[in-house]
Amino acid sequence: MENSIEFAYQDLRGRSFHGANLRGADFSYCDIRGADFSETTLIGANFSHAKAGLGNYQNLLLIAVALILSGICGFAAAFSGVIATDFIYFAVQEGLKFTFVAGGIALVTLFVFCVLSNYQALEVALGASAVVGAVAIAIAAISAIDGVIAGSVAGVLVAVNVAFGLVMAVSFTMTIILTRTLGVIIAIFAVIVGGIGGVALGALITNNDNAFVSAISVGICTASTGTFLGSYLARQVFKNEEKFLFFRTIAVNLASIRGTSFINANLTNSNFQQSVLKHCDFSNATLTHTNFHLAQKLDCARVGNTILANPKVRELLVKKRGVKQLYIGCNIKGGNLAGADLSEANFTEADISEATFVDAILERANFTKAQAINTNFQHARLTAACLEAWNIDSTTQLEEVICDYVFLLNNQNERRPSSGVFAPGEFTKLFQVFINTVDLIFQNGLDLQALYSALVDVKAANQDTQLAIRSIENKGDGVVVVKVEVTEEANKTKIHSDFTQSYQVALQAIEAKYQAQLQSKDEQIELYRQHQADLKNLMQMIVAPASKSEIPGKLVVLKIGDTDELSGSIPVTLQISNEGATPSVECTARLPVAPQLEILYSQWQSAYYRTLLSSARLEIPEMQTTNISRYDYLQECEASAQRFKQYLNHWLNNSESFRVIKEKLLEQLNPSETIRVILQTENRTLLKLPFQQWTFFDTYRNAELAIYTAAYNKIEAPSIRNNRVKILAILGDSTGIDVNQDRRILEQLPNSEVTFLVEPLRKQVNDELWQQPWDILFFAGHSYTKQEIGQININKNETLSIGQLKNALQKAIQQGLKLAIFNSCDGLGLALNLVELNIPQMIVMREPVPDKVAQEFLKNFLTKFSNGKTLYISVREAREKLQGLENEYPTTTWLPVIFQNPSQIPPLWNTD
Length: 912
Hints:
This protein is an alpha/beta fold. It has 5 domains: 33-53 and 264-318, no CATH class; 57-250, no CATH class; 437-542, no CATH class; 555-606 and 639-708, no CATH class; 725-900, Rossmann fold. The strands form 4 sheets. An 11-stranded mixed β-sheet has the order 8-7-6-9-10-19-18-17-13-11-12, with helices on both faces. It has a 3-stranded antiparallel β-sheet with strand order 3-5-4. A 3-stranded antiparallel β-sheet has the order 14-15-16. Helix 1 runs antiparallel to helix 4 (147-178). The chain crosses the membrane at residues 60-92, 98-117, 124-142, 148-170, 182-205, 211-233, 245-265.
């Protein structure tokens, strides 16, 4: 398989791409006749102006089959006519009564079949012919001794002629699919064969000249009649007559054999605009948001088990014009109708879930009882549309809908708004649905104090469920509806019962309190103040906090599992919670396998290595001498980084199966919040990737990423807290680098106590970790990873692995070690080894780091962290500040990374 995904203008006839991952591939203007894309991932692929269908060999074979079938059919028609005529002739000449009956029954039955097939459905014609034949046989059996024999003979004649007539129709349909001219040629060929057959049969079965002439004449006539019947049926098929759909299905299926195959392919968001799709096979393909605008010959493609099976829907997707058309009950699930003109179209009870109507004209359209789950109406024009009982949910996208007013009942009843037009954003607010709610109905008004008290009680009784008041609506006549939002897995019946009981208890308590406290004016004033305080607390539960300081931090955990070999995708679980609380939101999705991601990262990694000089805190192997300047390497590194970043964001932002997680993040997170994002996975490839380059972090400026493995244990922190931040700083082998700058940075930290070990022996490091509690472990010097084992050079002659310090490090963690900083190269190996000890937090460099970059990051991080900023914000700001060095050291903002034990909350600097 080619490494490139660019195939534009290429001749790909007969090529096999079976099972490949061709996400985003460009096949525009390609010749893909006979190509095999079965079970291929083609999400976002471009097939515009491509030419699909049969290869030349398959075309010739199809013509040959049609000729053979039509010849057989012409001969069969002639055979039936000659035999029937011969029976009648000899009945007259020789007085053979049963032959007359047989011939007559055959001709009458065939006549009935031909007439009815013209005016009725095929099954009606067949049924009526069978009835006429059966009645005739019964009459013959009563009136003639040999009637049963005559009926049997007639039945055989009728069956042969009808069967071959149907085959003839299929044959003509197959050829008309190729060209209509070829259909005419096939018809003429059938008549010629039938005529020759009639002559031959007449010569064989009769010795009488008159009988011979009659047989030939009738043979030619019946052959012509059968041929014209087949031609007529074929023409009706191409008019999309529902009564002849059977013929069309058979003919298209046969003609699509060995054509371009998209069987079981994932064509989500693919583009077939103005492509030729004759003889394609889309059976069981995923066609979500697939663009068929102005595609040609799609009616000649095999479309089993897709929304294209309905000719009306197929035509709509191709033309994108359905003004005043009826699509009642149609399945248009996942259809791409972006920009379509659907004014006054009727979608009553249609399934338009997951479809896209972006920029569509839907004015005066009828969506009564339509299924519109996860449907995209962004920028659609919905003025005067009828939305009676349509089924939408929170995934239905109604942002920036262009709408002056709508009707909630058919026949333009229940206008909203009742007068005037919607203000900007009002339509979305009116129809945004939250399915995870509990509706509390109060018949005699609402006491807010009792509601607040009940909410507190219910929250205490259902601590595993997040509760929030979504809205309070006054319905009139004393009826008030309170909508309480709950999590998806919540027991809504129990919560409703708890609310009802708690509200009644609180209401009775308040009434008793009123009676006791209304005895004096002062008590009444105090009661009023208390009531207002309760009301204020309730409003705070309804309305989001206004100031940034009041907004609690959020924790976002993305758990990425192992690749599912059957589906070829990766399971992902999202959890969102307030800091220190249990997850309040959880959902699952899938990401497609993206092998190109690792390739692009490796290309960037190689280019990055070539930009490094001897200032890196790692012994970089000498590169082969070339004539390429360092400037060229810098340009190559920037270009490869850009390619990786584009692919990473395409993977995360455009993967349809991952969309639910992206939307949940946008729905649940506020850009002004402080957000910790932890990516958990056992996939070592994914752990090393710089997911900070996801555009999500551009939107959420107070968010930063940490990584960790899927397995972890919680470490109980000791109750004794140091008055000062205690730091054990190991300054290891400094050959070729300046670790004294690191020392000067550490010495200037406020409210800290730093112990330095300069090029220590192993025993010194071990003893210090055992003897006293530390808050931070710091290392500066050379480090590297070999066979997934991290090593640090503690002096010029000695290296240490995490395993060699396991007992000492475990002791330090038990005594309160909160953070390890390895301001050295290639720290992922060190971090992954420390993970096994469940250290709370680590900061490492994912790749070799230039000395100047390491010092700049350390200075900026510790300055911000020691001044009270959170660990995550300090890392992000220090990391992003490295951009000022990227003209000399490209992509250094990718290097720092946090390893975070999900069970721990990051510490703040002790400023007491």
